[in-house]
Design a protein that fits this description.
Number of strands of chain B: 15
Strand order of the largest sheet of chain B: 2-1-4-5-6-7
Largest sheet of chain C: 2 strands, antiparallel
Structural class of chain C: mainly alpha
Distance between the termini of chain B: 27 Å
Helix content of chain B: 55-70%
Structural class of chain B: alpha/beta
Radius of gyration of chain B: 50 Å
Shape of chain B: elongated
Oligomer: heterotrimer
Helix content of chain C: 55-70%
Order of helices and strands of chain C: EHHEHHHH
Strand content of chain B: 5-15%
Number of domains of chain C: 1
């Protein structure tokens, strides 16, 4: 995909985030999107699903320990 | 991305080794390959497609199987090895892609794809890539789902019209392909996967909360909701499966019936011809009977001409005899008159007595006349005989046998010829139909209709279940908010996870439609731009895109232009493709097979001037009827970097050679 | 003059030929073929000889109900009738005609149109 498109998809996500989930960490969102981009054409979704879950778990741990 | 070199070995009509060098200059980036139909143009396209994706496509977008990809002549010579190598550059790296297939050792004559062993190798900047990564790498550069837009068969331009038809299969597939180009699947997959993560996290949360005093109710509620969600999602999955298999079944039936359409038509013709045959046979019988009846009377015609001579003679004799009889009558009258005179002895005019010499004169005359009268003897009898014979012979008349027989013979001959023709045609059609079961086909049609209905029903059900899932999600979200409001729950890790996953899922969900709209707008802008460059009409504002990626032309006032000529359709389709290409991927090569089909010269000029500017390489595969080298290419001569010609050696062997314009 | 015959027929060989032609189903009845043969002979103007091995199978009343054949023969061949009777003459004509038709029969049929055309040419 072109650089412009990465922006478009990501831009859309970030814009939606500020509206719908303002407290969500933008970096986390970027990472999730990156994973999806990487596995965009894979038929096997298990890798992307587990990668996303790991991201979230890390974010949860960081938040908890920070609290 | 730019193609550098393609080398093919025994690929379809290209027996032995064939090599093509692509023009790599930035401005001289047009390549033209001349080739008449059936010589190898589409095969060249397929060579690239097969090298990249391991697929070659034939008529009706059907896959060409490996055993049919190997050059026929080579196969006859027992050489079953087929290879295509492509060297190209992308994103600053150089790639060498090699795909090969050859007959498995234990197979004598390959008849199915499984009889081949295939390998694919990809080297990037000289470094080999591991086998399972090749597909991923290629998809990063030139994704297969998008390939229909840059490995482009001009014959398929008509497919794009199906985008305007809501719910058509073609339309659906193209729409999916377009959305892949536009990156929408990333968001869709994201939402799906986040949904699964969220659900699992929610269940975990329920379990955790159930252990906290005071939160049992919330936990229970959540468990209920997630249980409902599970049920619905299972239902959805089942429905989706059923839809997929019904659709696949229906598409198989579609294919069968399409292939069989001609068989059913042939069967109909056979029935019609059989009826015709019966009519002809009836006609023949009737004519034979007619002929026999006529022959029973034809003897009259045989007699007629000779009898006519006789009749003419008799007629003449009759005339003579009748004149004689008339004369007799006249004589008799005179005799009677003279006798009367002698008897009275006086002149009829003056009443005086007749002189003696006068009486002598009269007596003499009388005598002469009487002598004449008596000498006519027997002719009366003859007259009667002649008249009788004439009357009898006049009754014997011909029935125009000769002409009527000739007509019957003609009719019979024609019926015979027509009958033979019908029989030959029936035989021919029977051969065509042989081996096909027409009752079976009728059954398939019924099944097809039922499958279509089932598809419709399933789609409706799927929508219903999706709505229900949405509803449960809403309720879960509400419940989640309530839980987060409770201090005792807030600190739990599982609560946090659910919270984050929820946020992510909702963000992705909302973005899908927004991205679609943005991309659609972008495609619309690019396609409009392309359209304005390529159309010959100056009164247009541009193109407008609908939810199916169908495009409508807008006039200067912004009104939709409803009717389009075939040429205009093509330009619109090309505009869409260009718009998609530029939205969906980095600038790359576009290979087009017979792009000009129904277009006039002015349009062709416009296309030739425009497309090379928005692609890294523009490769045109044209047949000689489509383009006149001397004139049509004049405008882009300066952009042409390579010219080739496909030459037929035999019907199963072609060569590509360099050519000059 | 001797009394005329009341039954007519053909020579044995001609009768066999007429039977063959009849089997080809060209004519509905044998009598139709017999009459045509007579007409053919009269049209050609031939004077055929006596028949040998005579086989009779037709009644004169059936063959010539309105006496057209007799009158035709009387009109066209008066000289021959000095030596024989009409129906005996008719029989001889039929015999000639059957042989002639048999010669013309090829591929199971007779080209009647050609017969008429040839006669037409001869006349003109």
């Amino acid at each position: 995909m072109t650089k412009t498109d990465e922006d478009l998809g990501l831009q859309t996500l970030l814009a939606a985030k500020s509206e719908i989930a303002p407290t969500l960490d933008a970096e986390l969102l970027r990472h999730c999107y990156a994973i999806q981009k990487k596995y965009q054409f894979s038929d096997d979704r298990t890798l992307s699903a587990s990668a996303m879950e790991r991201l979230i778990d890390t974010a949860v741990s960081r938040s908890s320990s920070g609290t | 991305m730019k193609l550098h070199k393609l080398t093919a070995m025994n690929f379809m009509p290209y027996k032995g080794e064939t090599a093509v060098d692509f023009p790599t200059d930035d401005t001289r980036n047009v390549m033209i390959v001349f080739g008449d139909n059936m010589r190898g143009k589409t095969s060249l396209l397929n060579a690239i497609r097969w090298a990249f994706y391991g697929r070659a496509i034939g008529r009706h977008s059907r896959a060409i199987q490996l055993q049919d990809i190997v050059n026929r002549e080579a196969a006859l010579e027992d050489d079953w090895k087929v290879q295509v190598f492509v060297q190209f550059e992308a994103n600053g790296h150089s790639y060498d892609l090699r795909r090969s297939a050859t007959r498995r050792t234990h197979v004598a004559t390959p008849q199915r794809p499984e009889d081949f062993s295939t390998t694919v190798q990809l080297t990037i900047d000289g470094v080999p890539t591991s086998g399972d990564q090749v597909e991923t790498e290629i998809n990063q550069i030139a994704p297969e789902q998008v390939s229909r837009f840059f490995l482009f068969d001009g014959e398929l331009l008509q497919e794009y019209e199906s985008l305007l038809v809501e719910g058509s299969d073609q339309g659906r597939q193209i729409k999916e392909a377009i959305e892949h180009v536009l990156g929408v699947p990333s968001l869709i997959h994201g939402r799906t996967e986040l949904g699964a993560i969220l659900k699992a996290a929610t269940k975990q949360q329920s379990r955790d909360l159930s252990h906290i005093q005071g939160l049992e109710k919330q936990a229970e509620r959540q468990q209920d909701l997630t249980a409902r969600q599970d049920t619905h999602e299972r239902d959805l999955a089942k429905l989706q499966d059923r839809l997929n298999s019904t659709r696949a079944e229906r598409e198989r039936l579609d294919d069968d019936l399409d292939a069989a359409a001609s068989i059913l038509a042939a069967k109909g013709r056979i029935d019609g011809l059989k009826q015709q045959k019966n009519s002809l046979e009836e006609l023949q019988k009737r004519k034979t009977v007619e002929r026999r009846s006529l022959l029973a009377q034809a003897w009259l015609d045989l007699l007629d001409s000779r009898l006519q001579i006789k009749r003419d003679l008799l007629q003449n004799r009759q005339t003579v005899l009748m004149e004689g009889w008339k004369r007799q009558g006249q004589l008799q009258t005179k005799v009677d008159a003279l006798k009367g005179l002698l008897t009275t002895g006086s002149c009829p005019t003056c009443g005086q007595d007749m002189a003696n010499h006068r009486r002598d004169e009269i007596g003499l005359a009388l005598g002469t006349l009487q002598a004449e009268l008596n000498s006519d003897g027997g002719e009366h009898a003859e007259l009667q005989a002649v008249s009788a014979q004439l009357a009898a012979l006049s009754k014997i008349r011909g029935v125009n046998a000769r002409d009527r027989l000739a007509e019957i013979d003609r009719d019979r001959k024609k019926a015979e010829v027509d009958l033979q023709r019908s029989e030959n045609e029936i035989e021919r059609l029977k051969e065509e139909v042989a081996g096909h079961d027409t009752a079976e086909l009728a059954r398939k049609r019924v099944l097809q209709q039922e499958a279509l209905k089932e598809e419709g029903r399933l789609q409706t059900n799927i929508l219903t279940v999706r709505k229900e899932i949405e509803q449960v999600r809403e309720e879960l979200a509400v419940a989640q908010k309530a839980i987060e409001g409770l201090a005792s729950a807030r600190s739990q890790k599982s609560t946090l996870k659910v919270s984050i996953a929820t946020d992510l899922e909702r963000t992705f969900t909302a973005s899908i439609e927004r991205l679609r709209d943005k991309l659609r707008t972008k495609v619309e802008a690019l396609a409009s731009d392309a359209f304005l460059h390529m159309t010959t009409q100056k009164g247009y504002r541009g193109l407008e895109i609908n939810t199916n990626y169908g495009l409508t032309i807008l006039d200067k006032a912004g009104r939709k232009v409803p009717l389009r000529s075939a040429g205009a359709e093509q330009i619109v389709a090309l505009s869409l493709i260009d718009g998609l290409n530029r939205t969906g991927r980095a600038i790359g090569p576009v290979v087009m097979d017979t792009p000009f089909g129904r277009l006039d010269l002015k349009h062709r000029d416009n296309i030739l001037n425009y497309l090379p500017t928005v692609t890294s390489q523009f490769v045109m595969l044209v047949h000689s009827g489509e383009i006149r080298p001397e004139t049509d290419l004049a405008t882009i001569k300066s952009k042409i970097g390579a010219v080739y010609r496909i030459v037929e050696i035999t019907p199963t062997h072609s060569k590509i050679e360099r050519a000059i314009l | 003059m001797t009394a005329d015959t009341v039954t007519v027929g053909l020579s044995k060989s001609a009768n066999e030929k007429l039977n063959e032609l009849h089997e080809l189903e060209i004519f509905s009845e044998k009598m139709d073929g017999y009459r045509f043969a007579i007409g053919l002979a009269l049209a050609h103007g031939v004077v055929p000889p006596e028949i040998s091995k005579r086989e009779t199978f037709l009644n004169v009343g059936s063959l010539d109900p309105d006496q057209s054949l007799r009158r035709s023969v009387e009109a066209l061949m008066p000289e021959q009738l000095l030596e024989t009777t009409p129906y005996r003459l008719i029989e001889r004509l039929a015999d000639w005609g059957v042989n002639e038709m048999y010669l013309q029969a090829t591929h199971g049929d007779i080209d009647f149109v050609a017969i008429f055309d040839r006669l037409g040419q001869q006349a003109s």
